[in-house]
Every structure is written in C-alpha cells, then in structure tokens.
Amino acid sequence: MEHITLLLGIVIITALVFDFTNGFHDTANAMATTISTGALKPKTAVAMSAVLNLVGAFMSVEVAKTISKGLVNEEGIQPEVIFAALVGAILWNLVTWLVGLPSSSSHALMGGLVGAAVASAGLGAVNGGTLVTKVLLPAVAAPIVAGAAAMLAAKVTYKLGGNVGKKTSAKGYKAGQIASAGLVSLAHGTNDAQKTMGIITLALVAGGALAPGSNPPVWVIVSAGMAIAMGTYLGGWRIIRTLGTGLTDLQPQQGFAAQTSAASVILASSTLGFSLSTTHACSGAVMGAGLGRKGGVVRWSTATRMFIAWGLTLPAAAVVASGAELVMRTGDVGVAAVALFLIASCVAIWLISRRQVVDHSNVNDVQAAEEPGVVTTAMAAVTVPPTVAAEAAAEAVAGTTAAVTDEALKATIPAAAPTAPAAPAAAV
Amino acid sequence: MKIDWAALGSVFGVSLSATVALVALFTLGLVGLSKHETATEQGGTATLARSGAYACFALVTAAVGYGIYLIVS
Fold it and tell me: Within a 10 A sphere around the Cβ of A203, how many other Cβ atoms?
C-alpha cells in the first residue's frame, strides 16, 4: 500500500466521514416520498437505497476521475486545503440535518473548497464565472425544471387514471415509486460516492502517495462505497420528514410523479452535460407534485427555509473552511485543533439531536407543534399562484448568493495554491 | 462568463417530456389493468385492455433499463 502520512490519514478519514454524512443527508432524495406515501416501510426503504448506493459506487469511476484529474490543479493543492474544505462541508451537512432541511452536499463541498482556497491562496484565484455557471444557475434551474415536470406529470396521472380501480392503483403506484426511487438511489451512488473517491484520490496525489493522474485505488472505491451506504442506511430521518411530509402532502400518484421527474432530471442533466444537483431536483419535484393535485398546497414557510439554506450552503461552508485553513497555518497544533473542533462539533450536534429524536418510527408523524392548523389554513388561503412564488423565491436565493459571489468567491478551486505557505505539517 | 443555454434548454425539454410520457404510459397501463380486472370479476375478458397494459409497462421497463444503462456508462 502507499506510504501514508498522519495528516493524509486524517484527511482520508475525514473524507469518509463526509461521505457518510452525504449518505444520510441524501437518503431523503430517493426515499422521502416512498416513505411518506407508504409504498415502502421506512426501514426497508433505507435498506434498499443503501444497497443501490453501494452497487452504484462500484459501477463506474468516471466522476471520480473528473474530480481527481482536470478539475483541480493537482500540483498546487495541499492536503490541508482538502481537510479544511471537508470540515466546512461536514459541519454544514450536520447543521442542516439537525434542522431537517435538505441541502446539496456537493455545494457544501464546493463551498468548502472555495473557502479553503481563498484562505490559502487569496481572493484572486477565484473565478466568478465558473461559480455562477456550475453552482448558482444549476441551483436555481434544477427545482424549476423538476418541479414543472412533476407538476405536469401529476396532473396527467390524475386526469388519465381517474377511474383506475383502488386495488390496481395502490399496487401499481407502489411498484412505480419503488422503481423510480431505485433509479435515483443508483444514480446517487454513482455520483456522490465517486465524489469522495475523487477527493481521497486527490488527497493521496497531493500528499505524494499516488502519482498524478492515477485512478482511484480499489480500497478507496470500497471504503467510499461502504461509507455512503452506511450513511444511507442510518437514514437522515429529519430530512426525510421534511421532504416527505413537511413541504406538501403527497398521495401515491404524486409521489410517483415526483420521483419519476427527479430521476429523469438527474439522468438527463448528467447525460446532456448540464449537471443539476440531485437535492435541488428532488425538492423541486416534490413541490411540483404537491401543486399538481387539485387542492394541493405547498407549505411555503418550510420551502422558504429550505431556499434560504440553499443560498447559505456555499458561503457557510466556505467561511468554516477558510477559518479551518487559517488555524491550520500554525502547523501541527493547528491541525490537531481543527480535528478536535470537528469531533467536538459533531458530538455536540448529535447530543442536541437527541433532545427530540426523529427516526423510522415517527418519521411520518405530522409536525403539529411547528405548524398550527390556523397558520396552515391561512397560508393555504393566501398561497400565491405557484410559478410566481417559486420564481420570486428562486430570485431571492439567487440574490443572497450573488451578493456573496461579488465579495470574492470567484473560483471554484485554487490554481494558485503554490503561493500558500509551504505546509511543513505534510511531512509529519 | 458563458452560460450553455442550449444544454439547459435541452435538459428542460428532455426531462419534461420524458417524465410526462413515462407517467402517462404507466397510468394508461394501470387503466388497462384495472379494466381487465373489473372485466374478469364480472366473468368476461378484456384481452385488448390487458395486452395494451402490458405494452405500456414494457415501454416503461425499457425506459428504466435505458436509465440504468445511462448510469452505468
């Protein structure tokens, strides 16, 4: 096996932790509607998703190659930068999980990389155009595309299938949902597990353990696949609850429409070369399907909180990551401090989450305390025509992030890392 | 800054039409099955409805297979 330094070991473990949080954060994307409509029992659903994620992780290494080759300048990047980026991404994933909001793990990771890069190489290295085309635009476009498709599909299936017998309909939509949710899980495994493989490979290359341009070693593929599958099986029940029952009330027909739309959008976007985020597509699809039924309502308060979280994802992860990068400049002590801080924060967030446990047993319960009947009814009464509201919300999100963009988050990845202080810690 | 509007537009078009087409096909399949079931309950047969339903499901299955192919490749 390759020669691995202590720092490199920390980076690899952190990357696997990120992969794990990515798994349980994104279980909701594939399985929330399947669980809330009762097509699968909660435990069965997460088990199925976990298996498909694992299978997906082994099916191809194309995405991992793009990350570890091309995207980042392998000559320049330091293991510390990757570590700082991962710290930012993990913390943001855990915080959004705690409040039960779906948010993109890829954006968190990208935000972390941007922040760490800015801290280590300065603002100049950042490229605003890339940020807009690769992050901002997809984040706004994904929910609109998926939402429109899901809404139309839900309308169609209600119209055509109005006189389908009860038994056939129950069985049929159940099977349909399981199939489309399976596709989403599989796609997630191939995409997101590979992101971690790419990151670990990148760290190995950066630390000098692998030759630049190498494919991910087998143990990297296996461990990344296992980590994401374990995370998925654990299930991010808080997020599943928000996506499955919090945003809107879904019937099997709508669940099927939403899941099919999500699967089509993910596959079409990755095939046609305009990558859209899975999380954003799934959330948009759920809202669209919610509006596709006569009398269906989207709870815009929950949706707004989700949009705000999306807008904050990149800057928040970037701030944490740049802080971590600055602390680590002090050398080994700094690295240890950041590692301790990460562990302490994870434990703290977990302890807070125990105060009000959400798991497979109560995932479908209505959140009565949060939204009293009066508010819900009032909201239903004043709900703005869907498209206008969705666009307004999307613009609001765009506004938030755009402001940050101007500040300086200009480049996805630093090409200028060599100017960073030559980290002596790499030789530990 | 160059935004690839054509790619975005084609993603929008393809996703929208694929979703609606698949869901419509699937629903038609269910309608056919349901017709067949009511017919058999009343002692009759509805062969056309049943074969139509199977044709719909076959198309949907083919689409899922193509999806898996896209993921793998």
Answer: 29
Which residues in chain B touch residue A53, judged by CB atoms under 8 angstroms apart? Answer: none
**Mean pLDDT for chain A overall:** 79
Complex ipTM value? 0.89
**Do B14 and A268 count as a contact with CB atoms less than 8 A apart?**
yes
Cα separation, A378 vs A380, whole angstroms: 5
**pTM of the predicted model as reported, rounded to 2 decimal places:** 0.79
Note whether B3 contacts A132, CB cutoff 8 Å.
yes
Instruction: Read off the pLDDT of each residue in A58-85 and give the average, rounded to a whole number.
Output: 69
Q: Could you tell me the residue ranges of all domains in chain A?
A: 6-405
Q: Do B37 and A168 touch (CB under 8 A)?
A: yes
pLDDT value at position A289?
Answer: 92
Yes or no, beta carbons of A156 and B26 under 8 Å apart? no
pLDDT at A366: 61
| Residues 37-66 (B) with a CB less than 8 A from some CB of A | 37-38, 64
- Which residues are CB-neighbours of A28 under 8 A, at least 6 positions away? A102, A236, A239, A240, A242, A243, A244, A282
